[in-house]
Amino acid sequence: MSTTLELHRIEKRYGATRAVAGVDLSVAPGELVALLGPSGCGKTTTLRMVAGFVEPTAGRILMGGSDITRMPPHKRNAGMVFQSYALFPHMSVADNIAFGLRRRGVPRGEIAERVPRMVALLQLDGLEARLPRQLSGGQQQRVAIGRALAVRPRLLMADEPTGNLDEATGDEVLGLALDLVARTGCGFLMVTHSTRLAARLNRQETLASGVLVAP
């Protein structure tokens, strides 16, 4: 089985400050991995290097065996879910989900098939034409998850995906994300400071899982 993601001695320095110090990590297809630790320990910086938003000072990032260390974000076969949802405020639910597909040049006919299917999986039927401001926080995060997964990524990443939600809604949204990950078989890499959420990944019975604890 090929590895979805491999980090080899990834490091990030900002001047004399070393934000990330030589991280080694691998994520297999269908595996759940949480980066757990307090604020400022380098979790999000590591995730942003994998996503391509931050360039590593040293080390290599491989996805599916290919070196993507210097590859721009839109060319990486990965999806990202942010704590702040990061939806396009002027776009409807359907258009937000379709955004990545259009950017990748997916044919219109295929987009017309994928988006309603994703809307149904997200349990957002009837809300396709609504704008983000017309949705609850949990609904917005569902849309963000759908947008990330609609492109059928090799890896789904999430940065504190339940941080802006109450506990019950956060648990529901995370459960939905894990169910969709199980359906697609992609790897899942999540940043969190919550030991409760990290423990939930360790309890998943359908997928391999693990927690990397940062100092």
Briefly summarize what is shown:
With 215 residues, the protein is α/β, with parallel strands linked by helices. It has six helices and nine strands, in the order βββαβββαααβαβαβ.
Describe the secondary-structure layout:
Elements: E1 5-14, E2 17-27, E3 32-36, H1 43-51, E4 58-63, E5 66-67, E6 78-81, H2 93-103, H3 108-121, H4 137-150, E7 155-159, H5 167-184, E8 187-192, H6 195-203, E9 209-213
Parallel strand pairs: 3-8, 3-9, 6-7, 7-8
Antiparallel strand pairs: 1-2, 1-4, 4-5
Helix pairs in contact: 2-3, 2-4, 3-4, 4-5
Characteristics of this structure?
single chain, 215 residues, five-stranded parallel beta sheet, 9 strands, 35% helix, 25% strand, disordered C terminus
Q: Overview of this structure, please?
A:
- This protein is α/β, with parallel strands linked by helices.
- The protein has helices at 43-51, 93-103, 108-121, 137-150, 167-184, 195-203, and strands at 5-14, 17-27, 32-36, 58-63, 66-67, 78-81, 155-159, 187-192, 209-213.
- The strands form two sheets. It has a five-stranded parallel sheet, with helices on both faces.
- The longest helix has 18 residues, at 167-184.
